[in-house]
Amino acid sequence: MKRPTILLIEDDELDIISVERSLKKLESDYVLHAAYNGIEALKMLKDPILKLVPDVVLLDINMPKMNGIEFLKVIREDEIFKDLKVFIMTTSSEAEDRLEAEKLGISGYIIKPLNYTENTKRSDSMDAFVHFHLRKILLGENI
Fold it and tell me: pTM of whole model > 0.70?
């Protein structure tokens, strides 16, 4: 059986650690690939040896070199990757970016900051995302 695959595209090391910590709560076997910007992520997706087609992409919007919106525009035009489930990780103050991301067919939002413990009570927190969405997507569980 194929292990579920997650592509995390995030330039902040603390947010990467926070995501990894939340993903451990899946209590399931998965493969996590991490890229620090959109260019690095595209290289991974186009790598003929890696042959990466993730089940879920967790995408930061504000990154150097190629931001999340630019990355989304590129993959939505690619026949192989146009239907990827992409969840953006964003701060609530980025209304313009959020609207642009919606136009590009994102699956949902995860609100930053990801590392505050009081954030776990929010329905749009990383822990809530793992518990309610990621379990269903990757493991086929109905919560």
Answer: yes
